[in-house]
Write a structure and sequence with these properties.
The structure is a single chain. The chain is α+β, with helices and mostly antiparallel strands. The chain has two domains: about 110 residues; about 130 residues, 2-Layer Sandwich (Alpha-Beta Plaits). Helices cover about 55% and strands about 15% of the residues. It is built from six helices and eight strands. The strands form two sheets. A five-stranded antiparallel sheet has the order 3-2-7-1-8. Helix 4 packs across helix 5 and helix 4 runs antiparallel to helix 6. The longest helix has about 90 residues. The radius of gyration is 38 Å and the shape is elongated. The termini are far apart.
């Protein structure tokens, strides 16, 4: 009897509770070990996937590199053929021009016809122009410059600052300033020539150009400079210079050469007013 009283006073919980607690603890232990086992299996599976991907990338890399080299060789070959054909066309054009002048300069009617042809070619940007003028050079900011602020991105997701509309405004302002012939990135601006954005690049007459963007304008340099200094184009460039670090340089020069533009066949034309 005394032992029963001592048991009731010292052992407040039924032994079944202790057994149940022991079983729960054993279950949690097994669960933790099972969870760790699955984590190990998952880690091994992920490592195996990455190893397989790395092995596949290494096996495919030589073929990919070879394909890139073949494509690059094809592009260079096409560029060489195009350059050769362009040079040949220019030589033939020069021969035709010389022969035409030789035959037409002998009489008054021929000289009048030559004057009309020269005026038409000048309007069509069909011949090269050399003389004094302005050079406007616009350079993208250094890649190291911090442009991570989304508010400073002129094109979402792109670090490009100079856009087609900026160069279009420069060209239009130079025309207003008195330019007689203009080239952007070595491409003559003439009828049907456009300056367009193409993703992260700019195309002039469908030819890609890159920074620094050089705009040559043949014309009276001092008068052009005075007008261009007060133009909306230069104001925008100065704003880009302050906000983004764009390089802007305007200089006068003698002996600037603007190349001939692309001459396209005209299928239909009508003089305005007729």
């Amino acid at each position: 009897m005394p032992s029963l009283l001592r048991s009731l006073l010292s052992e407040h919980l039924d032994p079944g509770y202790a057994a149940a607690a022991a079983r729960r603890e054993a279950g949690r232990t097994r669960s933790r070990w099972s969870e760790r086992g699955w984590q190990v299996v998952a880690a091994v599976a992920v490592a195996a996937v990455f190893a397989a991907a790395a092995a596949q990338a290494q096996s495919v890399a030589p073929a990919t590199r070879e394909t890139q080299l073949v494509l690059a060789d094809g592009v260079r070959s096409a560029e060489a053929v195009t350059a050769g054909a362009t040079a040949r066309r220019n030589d033939l054009s020069s021969e035709v021009e010389a022969e035409r002048r030789t035959r037409l300069e002998g009489d008054e009617q021929g000289r009048q016809l030559l004057a009309s042809l020269d005026a038409a070619e000048a309007a069509a940007a069909a011949g090269p122009v050399r003389g004094p003028g302005l050079t406007v050079t616009v350079t993208e900011p250094d890649a190291a410059r911090d442009l991570t602020d989304v508010s400073k991105e002129r094109v979402a997701g792109s670090r490009q600052v100079i856009l087609d509309r900026d160069l279009q405004l420069v060209v239009n302002s130079l025309w207003v300033s008195g330019a007689e012939a203009i080239a952007v990135g070595g491409v003559r601006i003439g009828p049907n020539v456009t300056i367009r954005q193409a993703g992260g690049g700019i195309l002039v007459d469908n030819q890609p150009i890159g920074s620094p963007y050089v705009v040559l304008a043949v014309g009276p340099p001092h008068g052009m400079h005075d007008v261009f200094d007060n133009s909306s184009a230069l104001q925008r460039l100065r704003l880009l210079e302050t906000s983004y670090g764009v390089g802007v340089n305007v200089s006068e020069g003698d002996g600037l050469t603007v190349p001939a533009g692309s001459v396209r066949d005209v299928n239909f034309a009508k003089q305005i007013g007729q």
